[in-house]
Amino acid sequence: MMASLIFVVSLATLGMFFVSYCRSLVASSSRHPLSAEVRDVTGIRTVASAGDYARVIQLLRLCPERQEDRAGLQAVGIYYTSLTVVRRMLAWIAPSLRSWTEHEQACCAYFAAVALDRRIAHSRAMLAQQVEL
Amino acid sequence: MPGRVDLIIWFLGTALELLFVVCSLARKSFLHYFFLNLYLLISTTVSIGRFLILWSYGQRSPQYMYSYYYSDVLLTLALFVALISLYSHVLRELRAGEYVKWGAVFLLLGTAGFSYAVVAQSAERLSTSFAYELSQNLYFVGLVLTYILWGAVLKLRETRTRLVQIILSLGLYFSGYAASYAFLNFSAKISVVRYILPVLGCFLPLSWSLTILRHDEEARLVPAQLVAVPR
Question: pTM of this prediction?
Fold first, then answer.
């Protein structure tokens, strides 16, 4: 009984900390302006939409990976999937959840676009180094 | 000897602990987060020491068992001190350093007293039982304290990206640990479950290292973006 209670409470706090951790990751890149190139290629002008995420992830897969952003992208990817599940399962009970999850997913898309921007810049820097050599 | 997977996770965890210290030194944050570094340095030393004892005496030897439980208390105490140091960072502007220090001492003594009261009945292996009980209870206290600290971060509208992410990683670690321990009670027979705790041990130094690498001390967050439901 006690173990079940501890399990439920710790799962709830785990979920709460996970959501906050992902929000802090997303928030840390919200002030980063996107380059004109990334805006063109992703179609994101100033504000991203929830649907942009899948497209940006496909573009990210085309770029060479950076070790620094891999873990963050994985965490935000899990967060995005969880939001999709929440939206599909609970949005019909509480309609306000739909707009909230869409806003959160749009933030995830912007985070991924910032990661894409950094990967492109990183690849350019690598290429420039190779040319110099 | 533990299996190959156990050893890989063990070495990976130790390497990640050292990585955090190296990252802190490289990013000139070693003294700023001194107690986090101290905890991970102790953890690295303990990990190497445990491996040497395991290598010399074997996994089922009393030497390994005693060294495991006593070093676990040492690690839990170091993590408790690291958590209290995060309180000092968050509450610095309120000049509550003295209160935090005394509060931590009372909490530690209270937890030790409670743990002793629980194990006092068993005369056999009293010190080992006490070490185990204290370690378990401090983990639970750590989870509650991290939750309260997160509340303070939101209430005080803390903006330091590094500090916020370090606290959240610690919260994830503590709650993951508590959930895994509780889950072990139901399903100790499932072999995958025994890998969860060591993997969680790798998560904390990895997450802290990435935070130190990604953000400098001046990086700031918008506090409103951390709250799931806008106020």
Answer: 0.86
